Amino acid sequence: MRPKGAYRYCLPIKNNKIIDLIKEFQIKQKKYLNEYGLKNTSGYIFLNLHNYRSISSNNQLPVTQASLNDMLKAACSKSGIEKQKNSVLALYSLRVYLSSLLGNDNRISNMYACQRMGNTIQVFLSTYVKENRESYKQNSRLWSC
Q: What superkingdom does the record give (predicted)?
């Protein structure tokens, strides 16, 4: 667990549609903050509840897990991305999916991936990295001599 006030570097975003959506979110967030006389002194794009509690005098908390998930669903809908059956469309699901991809990609070290995801190696491996069907099949073929 990171100490209070610590930050981490995140994975770079290279998709222009996602960058545009984040910029749009940032503009709307700035309008909201101005409307309520709040200041984003950290300069972060995605403020968490702690950030808002520390800057909000009227305790209005616009960013919640639910509102971020609603924004994700709207962005996916706008981009033509449909939710698959028996799946959950949420930021945490994307985090788990991305972590699994990183953890199963032999080109990227697990140590680098866990640092980028903001976890210890133990948490990264035990919580997020799940073996996918393809790697399981490959490992099974290698194991049977």
A: Bacteria
